[in-house]
Write a structure and sequence with these properties.
Elements lengths: L1 E3 L3 E4 L2 E4 L15 E2 L3 E4 L15 E4 L8 E4 L12 E2 L2 E2 L5 E7 L5 E10 L5 E4 L1 E4 L6 E5 H4 E4 L6 E10 L15 E3 L5 E5 L9 E11 L4 E10 L15 E4 L55
Parallel strand pairs: 5-7, 6-11, 13-20
Antiparallel strand pairs: 1-13, 2-3, 4-9, 8-10, 10-11, 12-15, 14-18, 16-19, 16-21, 17-18, 19-20
Length: 302
Amino acid sequence: MTQCKNLQTPLGSVLLLWLAGCGSTLVAVTDQAASIDVECAASALPKSAVWTCPAPQQLACAQDSLPPLIVQSPTGQVCDATGLHASDLVASSGQAQLVSVSDASGAVLCSTQITLTDDAAPVLSSHTLQLWPPNHKLHDIAVEDCVSAVDACDGALQGEFIWASSDEPVDDIGDGHHSPDILLADDCRRVSVRSERQGPKNGRVYKLGVRVVDRHGNASEGECQVIVDHDQRGVIGSDSGEAYRITFDGKQAGPSCDGVPPVVPPARPPVEPPIVPPPAPPVTEPPPVAPPPATPIPNEPV
């Protein structure tokens, strides 16, 4: 049975909740909306009869708090920001969003556009997994079992394994003589590790390296541990130092996990059999037409 620890990871105002059993999707659950405070400034125009919002601007998603929206009141009118509020921003980057400033009655005073940008990498938190019993069977580990991830702006993230290591050799004394102990799936998102350890040692510790990328190409790397305890009497698996490492770069066989999805060639359309025209009907010769009988010529008198 695979057990996952650290199933709940709070990070500021973001809370990532993992389902028990380790099989949730690698998606960061972020606040759906961000609020902006409104502040006042004296009108810079000598004569202005309308409220003025600032020019369109860009703000970074990764900021702890968004800067206030500074509006200008009409000339000669005192601006009281306590009754003003701005519409919320959706925590999604790349697109301009219309933000309106309204008074206490809900009347819209002015509007502007704000674009959220994302140049911060996702934040990763590692999980620790335990395998038992050491029955030499392979267990699938997904990226989302290994780490949790939150992104400042966008929720959808792409994760893959980039390396794996073990603190015990592939085949050594007292481990059952099975190999290989680490296998990578073709999609780079799942690794299989063997639940076994050496009898004379203190348990086995696998380490799995992962890379998580958001849709803007911001990437973070992290790792998790998969532990096979020596026994259930208190001898807990302890990292004895890396015995070997496999880098998933395609040079040691297997796929290359470089963050670029594999190019799947388009399916070839089925080859239609050639159209064979039906055979022409045989040409039937018409039957010969018999000549008409000759008309006898009467004998003329001599």
